[in-house]
Amino acid sequence: MTSTAPDRLAVARAAYNDVPLYDPKRTPVKLDLTDNTNLWGVPPRAEQEIREFAAATITRYPTLYGTELKAALAAHAGVTADMVVTGCGSDDVLDSAMRAFGNEGDLVAAPDPTFAMVPIFAKMNVLRSTLITELPDHEVDAEALLATGAKVIYVCSPNNPTGALVARRTLETLIDRAPGVVLIDEAYTEFAGVSNVDLLARAPRVLLIRTLSKAFGLAGLRIGYALGQPQLVAEVEKSRGPYKVNALAERVAVAALRHDVQWVEEHIQLAVQNRDRLTIELLKLGLDPIPSSANFVCVPVRNAVAVAMAMREKGVGVRPFPNLPRIGDCLRISVGPWPMVEQGVTALAAAIKKVGTK
Ligand SMILES: *Cc1c(COP(=O)(O)O)cnc(C)c1O
């Protein structure tokens, strides 16, 4: 790595030399099963709030740190408002947390495979990162993560892209023995049917990072949050800065948390049913899908990039992951209403036949 890449300005920050722009190759496609958002749509009360939002409100700043939103999230999660920090998507919360706890050059450790943004956020905050290959059966290697001595340990449960839930005792081992902070990314926790909120009482240095982008169907509004002990959360809030959640997003999120939870829960149930049904369909195709606790299924498929491209030609987008550790090539398929999933399965079967997977 040099600080004088020829295509970069001399004034650019050297640490950003090999920071790429995020590019999940999300080109428009008729049926998009790539990003695990809510394919049933926006919850009804949220939609109503968006339509009725007074444009005049936009001339004013939103609240500094999202006071009302924090209160609504706290009530939803069963914690106090001083245990919540919000952000412009949970990406922003994760980024802010790394910045809050990592001194320049500190280490971030995470399992591999996991959320692809983690090493990028580390680099953006001038931290180093190390990825620890998962154990068989998609178990997180807690001992190896702890052995890195990392200031920041990241785990994602259910994990993206595998869908695997991190065992409760693994989380406990990590938070009991980590020398620094443990960030537990719970972007898909609603689909797992388990709660880790009680872990917050066990240890002062754990954050549960969550989002309204997936189960709540509000990805476009960019609302994320974290739960943790008040002193920990206060540090994330400092590094996050004021005005990060815009006025419309805050208003809609509060309405959704107050009035749409039943709708959200009903659609979580549908997603879980269709996920399990998709898993069975994949087994019928002779594939070996990874048991998922999220709203997507990860299925090892040889030549995944070519298979995904063939599916795209038929109007169905799925996310290929080439050559993941322990898994090899795989596809991650989002779950939505059954006719969409069914179309995905049909396109996958045709694509495998066309591309060949030997
Ligand atoms: C989707 C996703 C996020 C990002 O969510 P936003 O709140 O939209 O920024 C974070 N972590 C994981 C693992 C995700 O899959």
CATH uppermost class of the largest domain:
Alpha Beta
| Terminal CA distance | 37 Å
How much helicity do the residues have? Answer: 25-40%
The stretches of 5 or more residues where confidence is low (pLDDT under 50) are: none
Here the CATH topology of the largest domain equals Aspartate Aminotransferase, domain 2
Work out the helix count: 12
From the 3D coordinates, which CATH architecture of the largest domain would you assign?
3-Layer(aba) Sandwich
Query: What hetero molecules are bound to the protein chains?
Result: pyridoxal-5'-phosphate
Report the count of strand segments. 12
Strand content of the residues, in percent?
A: 15-25%
Structure at a glance:
This protein has twelve helices and twelve strands. The chain has helices at residues 44-52, 67-77, 89-101, 117-124, 142-147, 168-177, 199-202, 230-240, 247-259, 261-284, 304-313, 338-355; strands at residues 31-32, 84-88, 107-112, 128-133, 152-156, 181-185, 206-211, 223-227, 296-300, 316-317, 319-324, 328-334.
What would your notes on this structure say?
The chain has 358 residues and is of the alpha/beta class. It folds into two domains: 25-41 and 262-355, Alpha-Beta Complex (Aspartate Aminotransferase, domain 1), CATH 3.90.1150; 44-259, Aspartate Aminotransferase, domain 2. Helix content is 38%, strand content 17%. The strands form three sheets. The protein has a seven-stranded mixed beta sheet, sandwiched between helices. A three-stranded antiparallel beta sheet has the order 9-12-11, with helices on one face. Helix 2 packs parallel to helix 9 and helix 10 packs parallel to helix 12 (338-355). The longest helix is centred in the C-terminal third of the chain and has 24 residues, at 261-284. The two termini are 37 Å apart. The mean pLDDT is 95. The structure holds pyridoxal-5'-phosphate. Pyridoxal-5'-phosphate binds next to helix 3.
